[in-house]
Amino acid sequence: MEDALVFGGIREEIAKSPKYQFVRKPTLSLLFYGMNCRSEPLNNHLVRQALNYAIDKDRIVREVYRDQFVVAHTLLPPGMPGYFPENAFFTHDSQKARELLGQAGYGPDRPPPALTLLSASHSQAAQKEFELLTNDLAEVGISLQVEYETDWSTFEELVRQGKFVIYRYAYFADVPDPENFLGMLCGSASPYNFMGYRNQRVDALLSEALTRVDFMKRAAIYREVEALILKDAPMVPLLYLTFESIFQPYVKGVQISALGAPYIPLKKIWLDKH
């Protein structure tokens, strides 16, 4: 991920070359900005919605990551059972963001408090990402400061304790099931719900989904859960990470899994001597 800014041109050249097989697939993952729903001003869903409208995710993915990744407009990634792109709730709209901040009681004469974002990555790409992010928020009257904690255990403990109002986090599914995403990240009792997000209806639906064995009924429940969460806006989904690799043309039978490289069935790969 960090190589996208530096090696974007090389990657694009290899991807277009007929000399290699270039494979690319979105993984069951999500890079997002989690918001502390327990602290001001992000305990107000209107402010959280405003941040979602303010951030130009397409520009970040295009300019920083050279379109290596897929812009996220939902929580569930492509390839995940229950993925429903029609649930997308936010588009980049600075005017809408300013209107929501006004409804929350903020404006030119009463700007919202400065926000602090914590990141575990201090890479060149991450810094460029935050530069664009800071500019987007400044355009709607929100000041953002970025702090770094590159020791992962310390970083996770800080966000677990709610020490920062926003944090940058990448989550990868262990199994291809919506519960592994929606329940783990947004269930009120989940140890990974660092946002402190609480919605009784969401919790009830998550519990109901676990009792269903019919796939279509479970998927319908998770789609409703996702729609509720997106409207509450406890996070800004930024992008879905992708698996990319190149193979020699004589490598055959490669099947890419949405769970990433460890799940490629090596027993199906064979070499064509011709």
Question: How are the SSEs placed, and which strands pair?
Answer:
Blueprint: H1 4-16, E1 21-26, E2 29-35, H2 45-54, H3 57-63, E3 70-71, H4 94-103, E4 115-119, H5 124-139, E5 144-148, H6 152-160, E6 166-172, H7 179-186, H8 200-211, H9 215-232, E7 235-240, E8 242-247, E9 251-252, E10 270-271
Helix pairs in contact: 2-4, 7-8, 8-9
Summarize the structure.
This protein has helices at residues 4-16, 45-54, 57-63, 94-103, 124-139, 152-160, 179-186, 200-211, 215-232, and strands at 21-26, 29-35, 70-71, 115-119, 144-148, 166-172, 235-240, 242-247, 251-252, 270-271.
- What is the mean predicted local confidence, pLDDT? 89
Strand tally is 10
What count of structural domains?
Answer: 1
Please, how many helices? Answer: 9
Q: Spans of 5+ residues with little confidence (pLDDT < 50)?
A: 2-7
**Over the alpha carbons, how many angstroms does the gyration radius reach?**
20 Å
Q: Please identify the top-level CATH class.
A: Alpha Beta
Which second-level CATH architecture applies?
Roll
Order of strands, widest sheet? 3-7-2-6-4-5
Query: How helical, in percent, are the residues?
Result: 25-40%
Look up the CATH topology.
Dipeptide-binding Protein, domain 3
Which class of secondary structure composition applies to the elements?
Answer: alpha+beta
What general form does the structure show? globular
